[in-house]
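Instructor's aside before we start: the two examples that follow are unrelated to each other. I chose them only because their records fit on one page, so don't look for a connection. First example below.
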Amino acid sequence: MKSFIPTLSIAIITLILLTVFTYLPVGSNLWHVMTSNGYIIPKESSLFSFQVIEMNQGSGEWWTYGRDDQYYYHFLALPDRPYVKIPTASTVNCPGFIPNQFGTWCLQHTR
């Protein structure tokens, strides 16, 4: 019976970790940062809060659109400007805003 308790504890911890990494952004973000070339987390965001809205449709493994509690992001892949952002609060004043269509973003609200 003594060996059953540690085995059960390990199984429960493993199940909890798998659930966290599967259903929370941190799991996906951590995996992509470690395994994908070109995948970045915006400096204003974090592994825990950044959520991918849309991944690149080609062979690259990077996001094209993402968000967190403060901003929506569009990945540009430019050396001096890897992404643009728009505050989520500003999207209320941006008629026709669609998070994964950069042409609908009101650029005067970007920083």
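Example two begins here.
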Amino acid sequence: MIRQEVLDSRTVEGCKQLWQKLIVDQQHRITVYEKDDVIFGFLDGYLNPEQTIAEIRAFYLLKEIHGQGIGRAMFEQFYQSLQPDQYSILRLGVLNKNLSRYFYEKMGGI
């Protein structure tokens, strides 16, 4: 989990600049779930050009849409976009305290 003081130090402008870089970066695959012009979640997948490891660097869904299959669909969309001959491992780090780890375990993570 990210410490609260780190979250509090973020600015809208700083986040906007980061996202503008990520969206055009060919190594990042950004998936956003939105409905009625409201963003409910996003996934930032990273394709490491120097290794056979792809990563999910950020994956967030608002609690109100948990259990509807949206997270599974976003995860599978990123996974299916990987070229099997190029990426043999999909990595995602999560803390034991993070209850979302059960979702990742259900998706095949160990």
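The mean pLDDT is 85.
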